[in-house]
Design brief:
With 325 residues, the chain is mainly α. It is 77% helix and 2% strand. The radius of gyration is 21 Å and the shape is globular. It starts with a helix and ends with a helix.
């Protein structure tokens, strides 16, 4: 038993980070020519070409995207039978996602931040773990639903230099759709607790599962729309086609385990959008996207978390002072 646990720890702590580091450096190698051509003057020039109303709209969609993210936690807590006001949930959710988007391992970081908030509201650590796991499940349920529809409905092709056994992703899309249909059927029919790898799980009820699909799909649509608004308008690049490419980059970023998919997402976008847009324009748009979706929320979250910790410390001091005059 100890040997098995040791192997699992080795896999998580050594192998997965090694894969992430490898993919990160592979991405840098692929991007080396584009990076050499890229400069801050080029970046400023491309940003000036983005209409102001599109910049403001992209930032507004970023705010909407983080509002949508709060419903991940809301659905998870409803599934557990825990009722909290939205503003309390929003605080924990925003902090959890803002930090986990930028720091890996994201589940550990998101869980730790959520525990700091939810524990002060009387929610046990075990239930916080369930919330984090349920949020991860919600993300993949939405990704497979949206990806299934988009991949099956578009003829997006991977670049010829990428070794992939299928000519396009339509087969993957149909596999995703079948998997989601099975998931919904199981949520409708199975109410018993399921044992998996020594842990007990229960599937959500069908309305909760439908809520997962809606929230996660809206989240992915919103986050992709931010970047789409920052790219130069190209008639041949429709939004559904871009969304398919974005979802491929999103999946690659998560698999890489690199914080924010840094380098990996850029590589996939440059490879797959290169026939539509210059690589320097893509990199410029992605930099603004990262500023809006990653950096600004992280800085805001750091301030909110600091204020929360100060208030909690003062509250604990008052309680201690009242208990021991």
């Amino acid at each position: 038993m100890k040997t098995l646990i040791t192997k699992r720890i080795f896999k998580r702590r050594i192998i997965l980070p090694a894969i992430g580091i490898t993919l990160f450096f592979v991405a840098l190698i692929v991007l080396r020519n584009e990076i050499q051509q890229f400069s801050w003057s080029t970046f400023r020039e491309h940003v000036r070409l983005i209409p102001e109303h599109q910049l403001f709209l992209a930032f507004g969609v970023t705010i909407a995207s983080y509002l949508i993210l709060t419903f991940y936690d809301k659905i998870a807590l409803v599934n557990l039978g825990i009722r909290l006001s939205w503003h309390k949930i929003a605080k924990a959710s925003f902090l959890g996602f803002a930090f986990s988007h930028n720091i890996t391992p994201s589940l550990l970081v998101g869980g730790t931040i959520r525990y700091r908030i939810y524990s002060s509201l009387g929610i046990s650590g075990f239930n916080v773990t369930k919330v984090v796991g349920f949020c991860a499940l919600t993300l993949w349920v939405g990704f497979m639903t949206l990806g299934g529809v988009i991949f099956a409905g578009t003829s997006v092709r991977l670049p010829d230099n990428i070794d992939w056994p299928l000519p396009n992703l339509q087969y993957v899309g149909w596999i995703f759709i079948v998997a989601i249909v099975i998931y919904l059927i199981l949520c409708r029919t199975i109410r018993a607790t399921i044992a998996f790898r020594g842990k007990l799980f229960s599937l959500p009820k069908l309305p909760i599962a439908v809520g997962q699909i809606m929230v996660s799909s809206l989240d992915l649509i919103a986050s992709s729309l931010i970047l789409y608004l920052l790219l130069p308008p190209i008639e041949e690049l429709s939004y559904p086609l871009f969304l398919a490419i974005y979802l491929i980059g999103f999946m690659g970023g998560i698999i890489s385990q690199v914080p924010g998919g840094l380098g990996v997402i850029e590589t996939i976008l440059v490879l797959m959008l290169g026939s539509f847009i210059e690589s320097t324009q893509i990199l410029s748009a992605v930099l603004v996207y990262r500023l809006f979706y990653f950096i600004i929320p992280l800085m805001t979250a750091a301030v909110i978390l600091a204020i929360h910790e100060i208030r909690q410390r003062r509250k604990n001091q008052q309680v201690s002072g009242g208990a021991y005059p």
